[in-house]
Amino acid sequence: MDSDTRKITGAEAMIRCMEAEGVTDVFGLPGGAILPLYDAWAACDHTIRHYLVRHEQGAGHMAQGYARATGRVGVAIATSGPGATNLVTPIRTPIWTRRRSSASPARCRPT
Questions:
Q1: Residues 38-97: pLDDT tens digits?
Q2: pTM of the predicted model, to two decimals?
Q3: Where are the extended beta strands (E) located within 32-73?
Q4: Distance between CA atoms of 25 and 1, rounded to whole angstroms?
Q5: What is the distance between the alpha carbons of residues 59 and 61, in angstroms, rounded to a whole number?
Q6: How much is the pLDDT for 19?
Q7: How far from the centroid of its chain's Cα atoms is residue 104's Cα?
Q8: Other Cβ atoms closer than 10 A to 5
Q9: What are phi and psi of 77, to 5 degrees?
Q10: Hey, what domains does the chain have and what are their CATH numbers?
Q11: What region does 97 belong to: left with phi over 0, alpha with psi -120 to 50, or beta?
């Protein structure tokens, strides 16, 4: 491995991938399994703005509205389990209406 190569966590990789895809805004709610992503969010430099919501379904609908209003991909972040279940309607609605949005219920494991 080169001395210039630095290991990063999966959580930081998610942030870097969103940046590479041009994501500038995300909507989400911290919880259990997704906390390593939020730790990485605070620890690394990035340009993505996070909007804290009170419910995962709200994050999904906000991402959907963002996508409709801006033409950009809307991103909702939620934890696994009930958090992911609360994203079902917002995930499905853009498919029915042919709108672009992305929701990623994720489980991050500490390294």
A1: 999 999 999 999 999 999 999 999 998 898 889 888 899 998 888 888 888 887 776 666
A2: 0.78
A3: 49-52
A4: 34
A5: 6
A6: 93
A7: 6
A8: 7
A9: -120, 130
A10: 10-15+22-106 (3.40.50.970)
A11: alpha
